[in-house]
## 1
Amino acid sequence: MSEIDKNSSKVKGKKTFSKTNHGSKFIKNKSNKSVNRTKKDKDFVKGQVKSSSEHKEGKKKKKEESEPMEVDHASDLRPGEITHGQGQKAHQKRQTKGGKDDENKKPRKVQFSKGKKGNFTKEPGSSSDKRNLKRKRTEDDEGSKPKKTKMADSQLTKKEIEKKRKMSKKNYELGSRAKGLWEQLRRFDLMAEKRQKVSQELFDLVKTRCAVLIFAHDTSRVIQSLFKYGSKEHRDAIYNELKDHLLLIIKSKYAKFFVKKALKYGKKEQRDDIFRKLSGHYKKLLKHKEAGRLVEIIYNDFANASLRRTITEEFYGKSFRVFKSGDVKTLADVIQANPTHREMLLSSLKNTLSTLTTKSLLEHSVVHHLFLEYFSNADDAMRTDMIETAREGLIHMLHTRDGSRVAMIGLWHGTSKDRKVIVKTFKTYVAKICKEEYGHLVMLALFDVVDDTKLIQKAILDELIQSIDELVQDVHGRKVLHYLLSPRDPLHFHPEIVTVLQQGDGNAHSKKEPEIRRRELNQYISGPLLQWIVGHYKDIGNDGALHHLTNAIIKHAVGDKSPAMTSIAEMAAVPFAPNSEFHVVDNASGNMNLQHLIKDDVVRFKSGEKVLFSKILLDTVSPDNMISWMACNRGCFVLICLFETELPEVASRLKMVLADSKGTLKKHKFPGAQILLKKLTS
């Protein structure tokens, strides 16, 4: 007996329980013969057609035998599923139709094959499989037209899908034609006559549609180029069409650049109209992701002093507008005219600044000016609270004049904890800050006030030492190195810079003596700078700034200077020829560096230092090479400096070297030779 026969039972007049995918159902055929469906024969009625060829063949052979049959509880079965009792009913009908009486005959067994995951499927060609096949089309259906099928997107290439998407847009044809003309218009080598013709054709195409095209990423550039290269009439027409949408345009990711083009290429009346339409909205626009950058451009590049005041006044609050009069121009003027309302005015500005401390907003120079106005007028308590709020974002304000002043105030008047936080935010950006026009001033203020020199060494100087090769090539980077060697030296720093830095002297939070702090920083940086001279002096060439830095390092650094001095002397020891391309003795900056090093030996000798550059120079340069210096005017002045040091050992050795060169000096007519001759004969 097969597996199906074992699990099936024929009990007359009794319902059996069977599970389907719709829940528990009782299935009973008309002959009161029920079937108890177990888990194994659950898929008894899953008729699967495995091939279309067998499908058609089965329909042809059994067309006359197959008839539609009624299925009870069809909604409770899966598609194509029938019960075991329904299969027996169909079998009895076929027997009756054929004129055979087979009531006592056993049901025909159905062959199953085991498929994937243990499911049972009927073999192709079985009777139940053939009954579930679709009917052929009738002769009436053959005359009907077949349905059109669309190609699936998966069969299209990525380029075709993108083109199909673009073609579905409303202004696709207009945009395609406009971009074709734009490709010609934006060429730099286009002739003036041709450009005028193309711009006119493009204007005729897009006029009255600019308000729609300006917001798309591609057609927005078309309108911008037409405004740039078009005629005066074209600009006026485009602006008149778009002027009522400026507040939307300035917030658009792509259309906002039209406002920039209008400010740059438009008439003065158009620029003034833009400023009027944006007036009263600057505070909201500055916080907008797209519009904020354009407000920054307006403030820095197009606004005069009056417009800048108009922009900043929107951030002072309503109380400022109440107390403002015709002669009042700044917040300080309002506070001076209304001293009793000072706290109210600053409190309103403080609330505004508290919402502008995010990174994206702290990069705007408008915000830098507002912070400087607040710090300049606030008392110590209010200033301390604001420093604590903004200390982590000060690094984003160093690239402007006002922003650098705000950061310097934060260092001057911040607590030790505030300074520590500010210093740690500078990590990984030390070289960049040192090379900025205003940022390097913040670094100088940091060296003046932070007592924790160990923190500076780890967070700032270690990174600075790794970037010495980069900093010595930058004018502001060299200022930082000069300040570590000789702070506020008038030879290197302008009096105005010194005046600004003096504002931080005597602050309430710096306890260490300034001289001790400077000496500790100098000792830490001296070794790497002296080592830099040893490895790089031969590559300096005729760079006067680096020769100047070299002289400052030798003069102010602490430690063993003899290796650095020897490297400089070795450059001078090269044989000199009058027509040589470069020689440190005949070079203007190199010659001045040698003279300064020789003159500084007087101070070193008086201070008790034993390492003198004059002695190292005489030991390194051979007598013949030193005599060859007399062939040029600058070489003679180096020898004159050696005489003027009045160091006993140096002067006596030099006279012995040049004793037989008086005749050579008489032949030269340049001033250096005549002065040197007098020194030798005296």
Note: The first strand starts at residue 17 and ends at 20.
## 2
Amino acid sequence: CLFFFFFFSSRRRHTRQRSVSWARRCVQETGINAEYMGIIGYQMQVVARTIKGLSSSPAMRAFSVRLPFISKLPDLVKKSQEGGGKVRVDSQHERNKLSARERIGLLFDRGTFTEYDAFVTHRCYDFGMEKSKVYGDGVVTGHGMINGRPCFVFSQDFTVLGGSLSETFAEKMCKVMDMAVLYGVPIIGMNDSGGARIQEGVESLAGYAEVFQRNVDSSGVIPQFSLIMGPSAGGAVYSPALTDFIFMVKNTSYMFVTGPDVVKAVLNEDITKEELGGASTHSGISGVSHGQFNNDIEMLIATRDLFNYMPLNNREAPPATEWTAKDEKLQASTRLLDNIVPDDPNKPYDMKLCVKTICDRGNFFEIMKDYAKNLIVGFGRVHGNVVGFLCNQPSVLAGCLDSDASMKGARFIRYCDCFNIPIVTLEDVPGFLPGKDQEHGGIIKHGAKLLYAYCEATVPKITFITRKAYGGAYCVMASKHIHGDTNYSWPSGEIAVMGAKGACEIIFRGKNIEAETAKYEDKFANPLKAAERGYIEEIVMPRETRNKIAQDLTLLKNKNREKPKRKHGNIPLQPKFSNFLTSR
């Protein structure tokens, strides 16, 4: 309609003549009689007078003024995509960092990203900030597809005011976080920010708190990923800490509550950013990060891979892939497992090899591989079904559980339980690590976290004892007594209170130890006693492990264990370094 209004208003002087000539031509070509010609001519005159009136109306005059905005729109869109400008983007590249939009382009399937609020600007007028308005205000938000599945994203732009968080910056983040929960879709946050925008004061702090609340509300409802791709300091670190997975880039990403300058001023310690809160520190020492990568591109590729194992929300099952008889024929033989456990019970072996042999095509995505290496956790597939693996690693600390491993395992189990991912436990554990450091570090409460997580989990729990299952660690590692669904042992399994030699030294007080140890081993260093009691379903050959898991996943698909009604449990949360802080 607007097109015709404009068309006729621009030609109103000739409208009447054209309407009459058009009517006359219709009569000549179609044979319409004169009466109809008169009616048509009259109607066209009415239309012409109407258009003439509209063309002089305020609405039409306003439309003719606004029309040039269409020609300006492409330039505005282009400007909104420039961020802090070419010079600052080039500076990002010089530091081996991608821009906010380049990261989004690599994360999502090509052409699937839809941006929100591209023209939002901040509302601050203090300290000359009205002269520093940039479209988007330092964060790019929206949604896209990862391997054909939807995901929301926010990507902080360090080229705009150092990626500092303002009131409107936080509003944009909160908007996509709310939408993610409402639609049941995961969210990925790319963090590259100098912290709160000082010029805005309490408004920026309020923005952080709004984000934190949404992180907690989303926890266990949708998967949340944090990609640390630059600095994340001060209050900014707590949002990633509340999410499910944190990835960092070596030498370019940092996380700390207070930076090196503050540490120097308060404690008189000289320390670099990398030493204080770099990727290697948080991936190998603190356990804050779940993985470290050489550059942004490797991190984004790994994120896409991990995303493939995740359900969209807590109401869905993890995404299964098709697995046919032909695929199974191409699968590596599991006969390797028959010979992987050494005859010498004190000789180590690599449990990762067991896991990769069991997984489809040998694909295993390990989580926190640089932290607490005596415990292996990660995701794989068996016959196309997603599984969370939790395994002792005999080649590190003989597979003993310590405080770090207990916390690592507990966190992983609770995540799997949130999102309906079955848990497979491969157990070879001689017990909890002894010593003053562990006792003073709170191993009792940290070990209790792992026990609590296993007891609380209602997803399918499948356990294989590959060799040692000693003492309290046997109870903790998804035993039948804490509602393990199916429990098996390899013939090499040893289920006892402790090792034979240690037990005999206590029982016989140094008398005839060798002979008594041999008797003890013959009686207890095998899974028969547990099988007689019904504590394990079956003693299986190692090569049968993969098929047993596949069968049990089918059997337990519709498992439904109801929890007692309560607000929430009270998991032990003693801080790991409480004794250190007290001594300081």
Note: The CA atoms of residues 107 and 300 lie 6 Å apart.
## 3
Amino acid sequence: MDVSVGVLTVSDTCSTGEAEDTSGPELKALVEQKLGKVWESKCVPDNIQDIRSVLVSWADTRSVDVILTTGGTGFAPRDVTPEATRSVIDKEAPGLVHAMLAGSLKVTPLAALSRPAAGIRGKTIIVNFPGSKKAVKECFGFVQPVLVHAVDLLKGRKASVKSTHNQLQGLTFPVHACPHHSTSSGGNQTELGGVAGRPRESPYPMISVQEAQEIVLNHCKALLSQEEKVPCLGTECLEFSSTVGRILVEDVLAKDPLPPFPASIKDGYAVIAKDGAGVRDVRGESSAGRDPDMPALSSGEIVRINTGAPVPDGADAVVMVENTKLIQANSEGEEVKVEILVAPVPGLDIRPVGSDIYEGERVMSAGNLIGPGEVGVLAAVGATQIKVAKLPRVALLSTGNEIQPPGEILKPGHVRDSNKTTLKALLQENGFPVIDAGIAKDNLATLTEHVRGALQQADLLVTTGGVSMGDRDLLRQVLVTDFAAEIHFARVNMKPGKPTTFATCVLDGRKKLILGLPGNPVSATVTCHLYVLPACRTLAGQPRPLPGVVRAKLQCPVPVRLDPRPEYQRVWLRFEKDNSVGVAVATGNQISSRVTSVARANGLIILPGKSEQRQEIPKDCQEEFDVLLTGNIVQ
């Protein structure tokens, strides 16, 4: 066996010598016995940057075939090995993770608390193992039988690959399901061609919405450059008033103090505090916008002043007009003498220089999301050219023989393209420009041409339709065959939206993301809120990309039957006075083609999947559920 292996132990205590590393030596011994030769071994603390540095060095510089890590895969705050691994891999290897978890769960239920990652960087396979000696031995045993073949595939060792395949062909049960080798299942379907030979069940494992979101967002993060203070696709400078919805990538410092002069807080009179109460001569006026360099005030004088106006030199307090009395006016109606009724104290109703913002103060930090209030701050400090994160380029492609543009007279057997219209509006409402990639018919050549054209323009391609089990659902086939894409998931435990697909590929040297949404209008809209918008926010540099969640009671005048899958029902959400728990009202029939159920919704209430203990939500139920916010809440 000529497999080169690196063994990395991740442990704070072992790296400092406070504890003995037992799992690392155990893993090295197992590798030497059953896999290959250990070329590198090291122990690092539970720190993402330290872990990343070793993984990148061993994969890119040393070019080891396999890197096996041990430790840091649990729930403790410093268990970050999976996060470090996912940040450096090009492709995930969910089958290796599934093999470890499935085998481990047969040994102990505590295996459910392990969070390993596995994947490929260049020509190197990286696999995370737990930190105990026993768990390392077990997990190594679960994946070791396929690692040599995986290395052969990555290295392009055709003879070894062919030999393995030939051996497997003689087996009487299907044990081999590599993405480069198609298989059929069930009866005599392996002998059939055409529609009759299509798969009758999806070969993709069902994963949860949370798992799907994590996969999508991790791949988005992997595209971001780390050169700026904020990870982003790139930067650009914009005029400050055009930056709403963008992420700031550098700190903004105030060029001047605010206010730049002592300013009055009230309408009244600028006075000398030590003069106390009494009748004073009115010398003139200071209003907002006037030159603050007026002659200094003398004892016995006061100046009429407006809110925001500069306080003249010599004055050290402002008395509001309500605490004064007019004593004398001239024939033109101008004040000549005014009595101060209340003795002021120094500093009364004056904003000192820089009391709001001092010169050089950091008024906004890199990573801030710019909103209307932030634009006002930029204006106040004179910051007019702002460096922000670039937005992702998002292409929308509709697929289907029956789809036609909305503006055309409806043809027989056709429907208008409402999906793209809705998704485009959602993306633009959230500040993301859209590339219209057209409508692709359900044939391989046309679909391939449209996908290629869209990927050449975009960072993220969003398609609708073509991801279910129909004989015309060709998207995954095109992605794998023509673009060498990796399908990361293609079934999600949710209703609507089960066939949602996520894939990545490399085109013209750049990694591309593809989200294939179902063709039903409601499914497309729901999955856009759950996956597309969070992906766009992450690519735009936003640190919190997922939709907000509130609690609400479902108003149900009749019982609601539960689906086996968790269901995202469209609701109108409102809050009644003095109640922090909302009321959610379903927006009508919830079937996935009922587009009007989306039109009236501002939230998605998450109903649990059906179980033996629970088949429905009873009438007038008072139970609270999570609601994802998809629109504004108004009273």
Note: Residues 169-193 have pLDDT under 50 and may be disordered.
